Amino acid sequence: MASQNPVAEAPNIWGIAQSQFDHAADRLDLDEGMRRVLRVPQRELTVNFPVTMDDGSVQVFTGHRVQHNVSRGPGKGGIRYHQDVTLDEVRALAMWMSWKCACVNIPYGGAKGGVVVDPKMLSIREVEGLTRRFTTEISPLIGPDRDIPAPDVNTNAQTMAWIMDTYSMHRGYTVHGVVTGKPISVGGSLGRNEATARGAVFTLLQASKALNVPLIDARVSIQGYGNAGSIAATLLAAEGARIVAVSDSTGGIHNPSGLDPARVSAWKQEHGTVVGFPGSDQVTNQEILEIDCDILVPAALENQITKHNAPRVKARIVAEAANGPTTPEADAILHDRGVFNIPDILCNAGGVTVSYFEWVQDMQSFFWTEDRINDSLKGIMDRAFEAVRTMSERHAVDMRTAAYMVAVARVAEATMLRGLYP
Ligand code: GLU
Model's pTM, two decimal places? Predict the structure, then answer.
């Protein structure tokens, strides 16, 4: 009998990541040995570690750090705190980081970390304790030349400051470059906080030109109102788009005549959710994906657009600010229906790109202006979009397959040129 439990039926995210790789490897006619190498992560570390809670009790948390491939440079990728984190999820996210860094051609490999915790249930002091101990536990893997974490779901600049400080305390001197996404005052970069959203908007500007879908008055629906979603709303509104619906983990709001992103952010700040925003109708996180709009921005978690709802997605363009929001079955449905998808490894690569700028600035102790950062980001995103679109047209494949072909070929080339040791 089929399971009634939706979680049991959720597609395995690691299986999805591997099948996406297989598909690109087939198109590239990749050598069998290279496939075996790139199909699995190089290193995986799981740690169980204690934290003293505010009530004096000791809790043990589980976390992971995975490095998928480091042929093109140090491992790079965020650390997320979420109650549903699994090793398989972190493996998928680490593999996606390898392709993402290669897709935009920055000199990093792919890595990712996660701790199984709902940080909203912890005090700030408890989150600090958890962060410092997790950093200590994964310190055999991380370092400015080895593996450089950054923010991801439910982690932020403050979390990165604690990671930098903990690592530096172990060394006995300050090591800014061990982590990116830090506050400006401790070696962070201007523009990093906005970078994921800004990069996504740069790709949307390119897509809007290519497809002749003007951003002026385009109706936009955004799932997720965290760092990527809320800033994308602000930047898209500044381009003249109309934000008709947004959501967060508690639910969504809809107003066909447009929502003011700044006022929605202020409301969320005050009430802890976008829900209840004056003048809006309440919608669910699923409805937000199917709302009448021109551009859909999934900016939350994986596996949101599936074979079940893809037939009802009304948008002309999907811009994947989240990692892994679309399953392969949904990809095929969207492609058949003529929906243009800007895949995650291209669309949301602005975050890691400005992380790269931050790391370069830290290494040189020489900090750039925000204009230089945003201009350099635009150059990288525009070139990457162009490379992926050219690949997509040349081989008559969808944008995700094209992005994978660009990225996997680069990682395979570096891995092949370095050769097998010993
Ligand atoms: N967590 C972000 C991502 O998924 C940023 C990673 C980074 O800056 O290293 O791309």
Answer: 0.96
